[in-house]
Design brief:
- The chain has a 17-stranded antiparallel β-sheet that branches. The protein has a two-stranded antiparallel ribbon with strand order 17-18.
- The longest helix is centred in the N-terminal third of the chain and has 11 residues.
- It has a domain of 127 residues: Lipopolysaccharide (LPS) transport protein A like domain (lipopolysaccharide transport protein A fold), CATH 2.60.450.
- Helix content is 7%, strand content 57%.
- The protein has 228 residues and is mainly beta.
Length: 228
């Protein structure tokens, strides 16, 4: 004769087969979910998830991580099946590992961890695309930073596309334009529309008769290219 399943087992079976699951943290550390929205782990205090559709809602602050990248924000929605997430509020994307390089000296210099902050972020986990909207600020170790209205970070191909009031700084050099593409691996910049480049220029002052000229302090030269 087959025994009846204990009440605890029946309750677990009901939970697993239910279409909607709400996860709440019992302690201060929060709850951690695995393989959701294209991330290896998501840690938060409350997580609402539909097992049938894959839709999820994170109503409070969370941290989402996967190899080499972590994302934090105030709230998010998304779908685990399509690996899509829409994050809002104090969004921070941190690339905490150096990008893969080709061994040349330029790549070794530019392969640096980076941080992107914005108001809103749309994540495509399959394509590793991060679309930032509102007050985008990108910082890369080594003294490079960029700001723009919107930006798309292609993590797989090491490419950052920026639009709207774009400003990029590399040490004393700056570039402003309407649209700018930046290769985070090689350091290549491609501007389009009202491009202005500011760079320090060292000029020589007359020295003693018959002697070498003495360098003057650096001055900044501003070059404006016509819009296209």
């Amino acid at each position: 004769m087959m025994r009846r399943a204990p009440a605890a087992v029946a309750a677990c079976a009901l939970l697993v087969t239910s279409a909607y699951v709400a996860v709440r943290a019992e302690g201060e550390g929060g709850s951690t979910m695995s393989h959701i929205g294209g991330f290896d782990h998501i840690t938060t205090s409350k997580f609402d998830f539909n097992l049938n559709s894959g839709d999820f809602v994170i109503p409070g602050h969370f941290t989402a991580t996967r190899s080499g990248t972590d994302v934090t924000a105030d709230q998010a929605t998304g779908n685990s099946k399509s690996k899509i997430m829409h994050a809002q509020g104090h969004v921070v994307v941190h690339q905490n590992q150096a990008l893969a390089g080709h061994g040349d000296s330029t790549a070794k210099f530019t392969e640096r961890p980076s941080t992107l902050t914005c108001d809103k972020l749309d994540v495509d986990g399959t394509r590793k695309l991060f679309t930032a909207t509102g007050n985008m600020h990108f910082v890369q170790e080594g003294g490079r930073e960029a700001t723009s209205d919107t930006a798309v970070l292609d993590d797989a191909n090491h490419h950052l596309h920026m639009e709207g009031h774009v400003h990029v700084r590399n040490g004393e050099q700056t570039v402003d334009s309407d649209v700018l593409d930046y290769d985070t691996q090689t350091g290549q910049l491609d501007g389009n529309g009202n491009v202005t480049i500011t760079a320090p220029v060292e000029t020589a002052a007359p020295g003693a008769p018959g002697g070498p000229a003495s360098p003057k302090p650096k001055k900044k030269r501003r070059i404006t290219l016509p819009g296209t």
